[in-house]
Amino acid sequence: MTQEGSLPRSGRTEAVGGTAEQASGTVHPGPSRPGADELVQLIDHHGVRHPHGHYDGLVADVDGPALQKLYEDMVVVRRIDAEATALQRQGELALWPPLLGQEAAQIGSGRALRSDDFVFSSYRENAVAYCRGVDLADILRVWRGNASSGWDPYTINMATPQVIIGAQTLHATGYAMGIINDGADAVAVAYFGDGATSQGDVNEAMVFAASYQAPVVFFCQNNHWAISEPVGLQAHVPIARRAPGFGIPSVRVDGNDVLACLAVTREALARARSGGGPTFIEAVTYRMGPHTTADDPTRYRDANELEDWAARDPLARLATLLDSLGLLEADYTDSVKAKADAVAAELRQGCLSMPEPAPSDVFKHVYSTPNSWLDRQQDHYERYLASFSQAPQEGSR
Amino acid sequence: MTTMTFGRAITAGLRRAMDDDPRVILMGEDIGKLGGVFRITDGLQKDFGPHRVLDSPLAEAGIMGTAVGMAYRGYRPVVEIQFDGFIYPAFDQIVCQVAKLHYRTQGAVKMPITIRVPFGGGIGSPEHHSESPEAYFTHTSGLRVVSVSNPQDAYTMIQQAIACDDPVLYFEPKRRYHVKGEVDEAADPASSDLGAARVVTAGSDVTLVTYGPLVSTARDAAIAASDDGISIEVIDLRSLAPIDFATVEASVRKTGRLVITHEAAQSGGLGAEIAASITERCFDYLEHAPVRVTGFDIPYPYSKLEFHHLPDLDRILDGVDRVMRRPNSLSGLDGAPTSEGAAL
Lengths: 397, 344
Description:
The structure holds two protein chains of two kinds.
Chain A: H1 20-24, E1 39-40, H2 64-89, H3 103-110, E2 118-120, H4 126-132, H5 136-144, H6 153-156, H7 167-182, E3 188-193, H8 200-212, E4 216-222, E5 225-226, E6 229-230, H9 242-245, E7 250-254, H10 258-273, E8 279-284, H11 303-310, H12 314-324, H13 330-352, H14 372-390
Parallel strand pairs in A: 1-7, 2-3, 3-4, 4-8, 7-8
Antiparallel strand pairs in A: 5-6
Helix pairs in contact in A: 2-3, 2-4, 2-12, 2-13, 3-4, 3-10, 5-13, 7-8
Chain B: E1 2-5, H1 6-20, E2 24-28, H2 44-48, E3 53-55, H3 60-72, E4 76-80, H4 91-98, H5 101-104, E5 114-119, H6 134-138, E6 144-147, H7 151-163, E7 168-173, E8 180-183, E9 198-201, E10 206-210, H8 215-226, E11 232-236, E12 239-241, H9 245-255, E13 258-265, H10 270-282, E14 291-295, H11 306-309, H12 313-323
Parallel strand pairs in B: 2-3, 2-4, 4-5, 5-7, 6-7, 10-11, 10-13, 13-14
Antiparallel strand pairs in B: 1-8, 6-12, 9-11
């Protein structure tokens, strides 16, 4: 297809909600910085492509087939999410953190990365892991309880998901400092949520990143809720305003607009590769599901809010745009559905066929060198387990 | 052999490790031009450059967390915590990240980070500058914890710690920094085991176990006790996690009596672990319950009182008298063991 110029664009602009103030239900007066809080948006929630003097150039190569691929990615990861949720409900997973609603933020940013870039994520970035090429069952390994992590980080250049909130931002920054020492042009990317911005680690990461001009991109998915705490409890002003105080340029992007997320991430990566240092991206999106499957969001958030955000759904708007371009024909949508079905089946099969870990695995990899304490404990426990096979089947004790 | 101070021996060990491996990077507050508040990194930034000796922002979690990222990238960071009491802001990164990443990733990610911690008291410092936090870390699986007591060990063990693929907390007794000793700089660090304890003085009546700042005090106690005809075997643990129990066990089987001394508070401290483990392993050999001579369960006191808190030669000898059932400060106390062998 389709050259950049052939996509339909209206000249109109439309405000997209999602400020910190709105989420809390309270408007907090803050310093005025006209223009700085505006969201970068290329596709609005009606599926209308808007021109942008700066960011269009960064996605000039995204033609019709490329847009279709982004749509396919989002459909597939939404399906992964639904399948994993079902597996949890069926008792096959202990827990699952859904990403429903955040597909555009993760696919748009994830597809901007190069294979030698390195991702440090939280536990909700399953779509980013998909972009990195993770084996599907590996996504579930932790949640099934079969391992502490699903994959070898060096096989897909993505650290295993971080549970401690915000800790990974420092790891990304340190990794980026290593990139400088190596003279390489890779970039480290840290994914975290709005709640993490309250953590000391995130703020310290920004200090270090700015001080050393580390090639790191801070990608904050402001999904409006840190479990039951609204973003207004974390930030009285838009989160993107924070980074400039550390000397880090920042941008707010419509996190439900996959094309805009791709554009701003590409810009941030290019800045980092060229020695321009870190960038902070606030992708304003919404977690449409619970924090995890153990959660009940009806206890803490208003149904109308969910309805408002459902109307800004990242998949629906891209589908509308594709349809308007004649790119949503039945053979295409059938192929996307078939892909999603296949991925879901592979995911389920991978989950159900996962081998049970052996009891002695509990002692493995605590240290990379022998440890006399642990060796003794393992020896004693193995003797204990072996005693069952030597004991009478019934009777005593 | 070269005569050098304990502090200089660490510097020499760091220099040699950096010479041998370009992936060794030093990180910490004030470690560059200043050479660290104790001057342990003196001259290293000048010789190796600011990319290998990084002056860090004043943020302990930040230093530790970025060291994790450096290790992810294949570096071997050596982190300096300026004072023992400043390690707590980095606690999460140490116990949840540094200690666990190898386990979490099924061995895929190594964390060969050495964390240097000037620790312990006796130098008249203000609050937060004289703590003994080692037990927090020996309780954390995935970490190795060592403490050095003399220049030769300081020189050798810093290189062993850096070469170790596991994270190592390297506790430096700051009151020993200026003590001189002989160092064999040609010694090959690979020829000895980082986890091995050292028998400082051989003895047959009492096993006296300690580490770091109290090793020389324990040795003095052994000399003093010999005047009373008591033969003390002093063991410098060197490795606090794992503890070389085989060496302690062999000694206790010989002596039948165990005294453990450390500066750290008593409750939940290493002394408790050693007493329990040795009792489990050597119960039938013990002539007396193990005795601990430790710091009190108090916040570190202000400097005019710190020598009441810190075990000294006489308090250690009093502990020795208790396991020897000789008259001691607790003699006659209801329920306390006495020279007549009252109920334990």
